Amino acid sequence: MPTATRKTDLTPLEAIVVEHTLGEEARRNTRDGALARIQRLTRERQKLYAKSAAHPLFAPANRARIIAISAEIELLWDILRRERATRRVQIERALNVTCEDDDNDHREPRDPSRDPSSDAA
Fold first, then answer.
1. Contact at 8 Å (CB) between 100 and 9?
2. pTM
3. How far is CA 87 from the centre of its chain?
4. Count of domains forming the chain
5. Is 115 within the bounds of a domain?
6. How many CB atoms lie within 10 A of CB 26?
7. Domain range holding 72?
């Protein structure tokens, strides 16, 4: 069985496949996922801001909901970023691609006492 060699860059075709796959998932997410929820919450928050501006007496009542919506939006963006990063890593692993930084992490740690540059003195 041949062993697969790891590479650090996608070929142009692989890059297109990855972007297409991630784009399809993003479009699906726009309809019924975290991104759709973010968009709904953003619209609600904009309406509350508009009501507060039009009727300053409602501003204190709307403030708590605006803060709650903002916190939920931040949480959803964090979840969405993690999902996208995880999916991208899965695709790149399937294509046998690794980051150059990952290659460096698997090397043996350097022992400063065996550093050849310190022997030059």
1. no
2. 0.58
3. 9
4. 1
5. no
6. 14
7. 12-98
